[in-house]
Amino acid sequence: MQNKALRYLLLLLTLCCFSSCFQIIEEINMANDGSGTVNLTVNLSASRSKVASIMLLDSINGYKVPTKQTIQKEMDEIVAYLKKAKGISNVKKKVDFDNFIVSLSFAFEQVSNINNINQSVLKKLKINAVNNSSYAYTIATGTFQRNYTHTKEAVIQYNKLKPEVKNVFKEATYTSIYRFEKPVVSSANPLAKVSKSKKAILLNTGILGLINGKTNISNQIILSK
């Protein structure tokens, strides 16, 4: 995804930087044939009162505060961009300014269609914490794989932030949820938890761990045949 399609997330990140905490959620629902849907969410609801106050300002500590109109405009541009992306369809946006939750959702023909998109989105949201991440699915073996590689650039970008912004990342979290039609036989990442139904995998971790390279979110998930 081009930077133009990511600007709304960067605007939201400005608000995240002055919230007491925030959450980034990535959900992938995949069918047996490798098609599926994605939902990406930035959730600032735990700090909605503080964020609402911040949005009344023009700037804070040298950072320009985005208006609601600006966020809506940028999201419209993202939707327009995604509608032109190969293998992507049914693009939708949702903005909740009461709870400060913003999300994007879309369908994909095959999981590889989302590689460039998620790669860029997660890179921006985590200050380059996940700038080497990709997905693959092999139908014959029922293997879903996420490959993740931490880079030193994540730490470099993090260290450029102001102290008050760095502190916010101490409580910020990243959650990934993968849902399948078939039961999960095995999951390679020890941090990931399999649901009772055996058809979903959840991984929840602190964003700071991704930035400093202490957390690895790679996983190989084997589905039943």
Distance between the termini: 34 Å
Q: Which percent range fits the helix content? A: 25-40%
**Widest sheet, order of strands:** 5-6-2-1-9-12-11
Largest sheet: 7 strands, mixed
Q: Could you list the spans in which at least 5 consecutive residues all have pLDDT below 50? A: 1-11, 120-131
- Overall outline: globular
Please state the average pLDDT score: 79
Q: What portion of the residues fall into strands of 2 or more residues?
A: 25-35%
Global structural class: alpha+beta
H/E element string? HEEHEEHEEHEEHHEEEEHE
- Give Rg in angstroms: 17 Å
- What is the quaternary state of this protein? single chain
Number of helices: 7
Describe the protein's topology.
Elements: H1 7-16, E1 23-30, E2 36-43, H2 48-54, E3 59-60, E4 63-64, H3 68-82, E5 88-96, E6 101-108, H4 115-125, E7 133-138, E8 143-148, H5 152-159, H6 163-168, E9 173-180, E10 184-187, E11 193-194, E12 200-206, H7 207-211, E13 219-223
Parallel strand pairs: 1-9
Antiparallel strand pairs: 1-2, 2-6, 3-4, 5-6, 7-8, 8-13, 9-12, 10-13, 11-12
Helix pairs in contact: 1-3
Q: Can you describe what's shown?
A:
- The structure is a single chain.
- The protein has 225 residues and is of the alpha+beta class.
- Helix content is 28%, strand content 33%.
- The protein is built from seven helices and 13 strands.
- A seven-stranded mixed sheet has the order 5-6-2-1-9-12-11. The protein has a four-stranded antiparallel sheet with strand order 7-8-13-10. It has a two-stranded antiparallel sheet with strand order 3-4.
